[in-house]
Design goal:
By secondary structure, the chain is an alpha+beta fold. The protein contains five helices and ten strands.
Length: 156
């Protein structure tokens, strides 16, 4: 598959530099980092959450896990993990478990962890289990500009 069409369209429209890097098949974020031979803390991992107000994509390093209670409290929402079926309907051009962290390409609002600010390079799933997108950290952060952020994760 290489890269999800909608993601590719979004990235090309923004004009940021990026490259797609193939790797052996993987199932989890940490396995993706190992197979792609990239530092796991530089792999941006999305977690889809929901409540009665709708969906929210939390983006954090693969080495961390989202603190749903802290995030719910900070946003005054009652967030919980979304189901695999819901993920599939929101990210139809992506394989299950391989959605990219750029929810704005899919009309899904995002919130991101401050740990992503200091990274020189960022990698993330391209929409399948055999490719990652690589871009400069400053470009990734520029794409996230204007979205809510904070310390929303815990060590895994």
């Amino acid at each position: 598959m290489a890269i999800a069409r909608r993601l590719e369209w979004y990235l090309e429209r923004t004009g940021v530099w990026f490259e797609v890097l193939p790797h052996p098949h993987s199932e989890t974020s940490l396995q993706t980092a190992r197979e792609a031979r990239i530092p796991a803390n530089r792999l941006a991992k999305p977690v889809l959450l929901e409540d009665e107000d709708g969906y929210l994509l939390a983006v954090l390093p693969a080495t961390r896990r989202v603190d749903v209670d802290r995030l719910s409290h900070a946003l005054h929402r009652k967030l919980e993990l979304a189901s695999e079926d819901e993920i599939g309907s929101l990210f139809p051009d992506c394989e299950a478990g391989a959605m990219p962290p750029l929810g704005m390409a899919y009309q899904v609002p995002i919130v991101f962890d401050d740990a992503l600010f200091a990274l020189p390079d960022v990698y993330f799933e391209a929409g399948d289990h055999e490719d990652v997108v690589h871009m400069h950290g400053c470009d990734f952060c520029a794409l996230l500009e204007g979205w809510h952020h904070g310390p929303l994760s815990l060590p895994s």
